[in-house]
Amino acid sequence: MTAPYKTEKFAKYEPLIKAYQKARDDQMEKYDPKFYAACLAKLPSQQEFDSEPIDATQFVKADFGLLSEKEAAIVNDYTLQQLLAKQLEGKLTAKEIAHAFIKSSIIAQIATNCVMQFMFDKALSQAAKSDEFLKTNKQLKGPLHGIPISLKEHMEIKGSVTHASYVSLIEHVSKNTNVSIQLVENMGATTHVRTSQPQAIMHLDTINNVIGRTRNPLSTRLSPGGSSGGESAIVGMHGSVLGIGSDIGGSIRCPAAFANIYGLRPTTKRFSGLYSVSGGGGQESVVPTMGPLARSTAELNAFMDHYINDGKPWLLDPSSVPLPWNTSPQLPAKIRVGVLFTDGIVTPFPAVTRTMHEVVENLKQNPSVEVVDLKKYWLSAEDMIKANETVSTLYTCDGNRAQKELLVPSGEPILPLTEFFFGHNEGKHLSVYENHELNKIRDATKLKVFQNVFPHCDFILSPAYAGPPEIPELSKYWGYTAFWNLVDYPNLVFPTPFQHDPAKDTEIPPLYDNVFERMHWNDKDGKIRYDPKAYEGAHIALQLTGPRYQDESLIAATEVLTKSLGIGRR
């Protein structure tokens, strides 16, 4: 399947795309014409956002002048727990909170192009009902009472269009509401915005033919990651308290890393994705999961506690494991943190390696942490190459048929990273026997991690991506995240205080000789593509991995690391 694909067929869809974009933009103007006009007047142009390394988070601060002091405090300063407390105390209403986050989400959209659909009327109605409930009953409607939560658009909402960035589905009206949306709304959350994902939902970037490119909130000319890039942008811009994304190859963790926020990929089957649109339905060799992106570990933990213990997803989704959330995980007095500076086949760009060393040196001074070098325990380069080939082949094991059935009807242009994804294993269709043989490799790899690595450590510290937040359309190596999807160990991406430095991060390190290293480091002509100046404004986040179904301990261990680094809420 090759471009050009912009045929007469696609031309028939272009008016629908324009109408879809206009409906979204009209919502911003309709909500508050004066506020919207002020945003357009004060914020940089779309061209400037695309070409300059602008930190867009400055625009939601009170001193920038778009949000009042009270609104800025609501979106910037108060945690999920504090917002609940202030409503109980009568110091804030759910409607005041909703209005503040509606405004910050408008700013986020103009700066980063992260929104597919605004749902302001619905959110304000939800907030009004929450306020009335509290007034009448003197208690909160639920544990997420009045908390604005953003949603990745491919999560279905009954009666609304859900297209998942497939142009052919731009008039597809969902018949069901995603189970996780049902749960958070039943617990009192306000759902005010649905966010962007890339074409095919299989890029570590966020570009599609419905609304175009989503930008990084901390350096707008860079990528926000993918496929939950709309979520990383809006959470990073304080346009929601937290967001729900999905992850089959890094789609929560890569965006969280690129926005320097927190992102949890839970062990599979703990977080329901029932009633979502994608091109991967029925594929069970690499199981996707949904999970939260937030600005602190405390908010991740509180949300997961409420989602699992109060929401009980297994009552609506039989695939969800009925495993309660442990609210008091016990860590060893001294946690053993195994360190992987590299996965053994792809060398990270200099800023990531420097950050890893800085963090490790910090942890060595922490009496609560024992640092373990995992180099001698880790899988061989041969095993890692086989694992990466296996996971990428499993993604496309149907010869990309399911994806093509969603892309071909509209004739939409096939984007470069979609072409790249389709090229895994040359896009070959596997037999059932071949699929089973790859599943055997998956299971053997999972066992090697269990038997050879985890006896020597409690958690594994590694890069979240092989570079800083990436230049758009260049995120090709998924190994630092997708490996963990293959073997299904939970991960948490967390921010660090370190940034890419164009003056420091200049030296090209010794490189491995394999196709994955060249995929990451080289351009199409085989030359080194790394340019230190291109990553200005990029922050570096890292990834912590824990044992399966010990997601609670993983969050607790991450808190130990971030406290040691002096990192708090973003």
UniProtKB/TrEMBL annotation:
Residues forming the catalytic site: 152 (charge relay system), 227 (charge relay system), 251 (acyl-ester intermediate)
UniProt cross-references to Gene3D superfamilies, sorted A to Z: Amidase signature (AS) domain
Keywords associated with the record: Hydrolase
Catalyzed reactions: a monocarboxylic acid amide + H2O = a monocarboxylate + NH4(+)
Superkingdom, taxonomy of origin: Eukaryota
Domain Amidase as annotated: residue spans: 97-554
Annotated positions binding substrate: 201, 227, 248-251
Pfam family, one: Amidase
Protein family membership: Belongs to the amidase family.
Identification of the protein by name: amidase
EC number of this enzyme: 3.5.1.4
One function term, GO molecular function aspect: amidase activity
